[in-house]
Give the backbone structure.
Amino acid sequence: MKDPLKQTLLARVYDVAKETPLQLAPKLTDSKGVSVYLKREDLQPVHSFKLRGAYNKMIHLRDDEKARGVIAASAGNHAQGVALSAKKLGLSALIVMPLTTPAIKVEAVKSHGAEVILFGDSYSDAYDHSQKLMESTGRSFIHPFDDPYVITGQGTIGREVLEQLPDVTHIFVPVGGGGLIAGIAQYVKSLQPSVKIIGVEPEDSNAMGKSLAAGRRVTLPEVGIFADGVAVKQVGTRTFSIAQKYVDEVITVNTDQICAAIKALFEDTRSILEPAGALAAAGIATCSFPKDAKIVAICSGANVTFERLQQIAERTLIGSGKEALFAVTMPEKPGALHSFCQQVMNGHAITEFNYRLHQRSSATILVGIAVSDNDDKQAFMKKMASFGYAHTDLSGDDIAKEHARHMLGGPATEAQSEHFYQIDFPERPGALGTFLGAIGSQWNISAFHYRNAASDTGNVLIGLEAADKQLLEEKLKRTGYTWQSVHTNASLRTFVM
């Protein structure tokens, strides 16, 4: 494609997509002291920007390619974009989705008339199968991000932003494979080089940031599953090249910050964005700007299942700095909690309290405290110390927030050679049985905690008794599941081990 700028201007997206509004975000504007606008791609017919690139690619297929139909691999927004585009163009569409894909997403794709094949436990499995089907059926593969027509289709968002806010100074863009930021960056920078293009990635899925730092495409050994819409191990060849030339910076945010952004955007728009869709707003919340800045956050999608909202809500207060989570040691005697409340609470509300009798000498509680800001949190910690309460700040401890806060009962005093692991399980029937069969029956499970997060992968905390830890971990490697040892985690050592 010789002239991406011209191709973006000519992109055929509005047959099926719509020009989305640029909406002032009062909450972000007030908190940052500068004008912050939301580019509402969540208002597209499929509640995601993916429709633009998919349609632009498919409209440019040759007639013989259109006659053979299209194929794609996706567990989410790209699948819906391809399906609706195919329906508009009268093409046959085959979408390969992992077996772990939530039913609501599968039904959404089918509702647009596409055929769905469920295969494998991950996107990689689905992608590999789609490539085999592409060869056997002659269908054209519609790549989710690394295609020139897909990139220029997404670039129409940049064109709209410049038309809607000509004096924009910063554009924050969620980054997964890089198609969205590549399309926006190459268009905007070609016309207004002074506009800062800033990518935002989750801390545990930062393939673009690491690639730009290394000067080459980096493959992540594993990616986080919370913001599944951007969970990509390697960015595209084309998207990386464009990002090297046009993107000013890529920053990262954590899960709590993403959840806080979802809440802030809900309060501004009464819409609930998916985690990936709130990345840009989360990134803006972490940065400082000149007083005359005019900032745009690309709200890329809102395909979040209702069941995931509980998990998001649990992390929101900590992410916004309004809650702190502590492990606090106090005497194991009647009236100890009352004394703690009288001495250090003083106007602070308890948001969570977990306790189980373990030993008679002292007690350790897990307590959540409402705080106004970080200074208030630090003052609360100093007050606890002044009254002799030993404590550990667990506010940044993912194991504590995902697992330990839900586990009561204390350490297993009779457990022998106990080792703890966090494992990502595919959300499908039989996954646990498959895992246990892979590691063998010689290990006793001493602890297990799992909560359904309405995603395609579930996060499990498991304790196993194993005299030979090396042999156990060799078995874990053979399962094919992503896992990590968490034996040294502070919250586990306090409440569980």
